[in-house]
Design a protein that fits this description.
By secondary structure, the chain is of the alpha+beta class. The protein has 5 helices and 8 strands. The chain has 2 domains: 15-45; 46-176, no CATH class. The strands form 2 sheets. Strands 1-2-3-5-6-8 form a 6-stranded mixed beta sheet, covered by helices on one side. The structure holds calcium ion.
Length: 177
């Protein structure tokens, strides 16, 4: 049975038809392919934001992307040999529905977090393992394991974005995008 007829048979008056949905997917597909081609990973089946975050981190920190980044471990090695885990945190504009656990228990030297709001890249925040406890203390965090983890909230992001120099002594690199 044709998809359109199937849809009509279900009499979903207000919903889009399967063919309309497939057409909408093609619009996304074309834009996605163009974006991934620009990033140099045309064949990628991963989330484009994950690919984008890694390339932003590389553009900011230099170094080389790891050959297999889908495996756990690190995504980037800087020219000085530091291993970097790269993640992104996507939220709507203004109100965050997601927070992020910065987590060094995987053993990386640095942790780069791309902040995305309403699909717009806002900033890259890079933490260092050595300085994390200092960052947690400066942010007034109360959770355990502050040597290796940071429960990163919107208030924390705003604190760093407002006065990044306050966090520089603790190894934080903040780049507004
Ligand atoms: Ca990663």
């Amino acid at each position: 049975m044709l998809l359109d007829r199937l849809w009509q048979a279900r009499a979903m008056e207000s919903a889009a038809s399967p063919l309309e949905l497939v057409a909408a997917l093609r619009t996304y597909r074309a834009a996605r392919q163009e974006f991934l081609a620009f990033l140099g990973c045309k064949e990628s089946n991963r989330d484009p934001l994950a690919e984008f975050a890694e390339r932003i981190a590389q553009a900011v920190l230099g170094g080389a992307l790891a050959t297999s980044r889908v495996q756990k471990g690190h995504d980037l090695v800087t020219e000085t040999g530091e291993t970097v885990q790269v993640k992104y945190l996507a939220n709507p504009e203004g109100t965050w529905v997601n927070e992020h656990p910065v987590d060094f228990r995987g053993g990386c030297d640095r942790y780069a977090l791309l902040i995305v709001e309403a699909l717009d890249a806002k900033a890259l925040v890079v933490f260092s393992r050595e300085g994390l406890a200092g960052v947690c203390s400066e942010l007034g965090k109360r959770h355990p394991n502050q040597e290796l983890t940071l429960q990163f909230t919107r208030a924390n992001y705003q604190a760093i974005a407002t006065r990044p120099e306050r966090f520089e002594p603790f190894g934080v690199t903040f780049v507004q995008l």
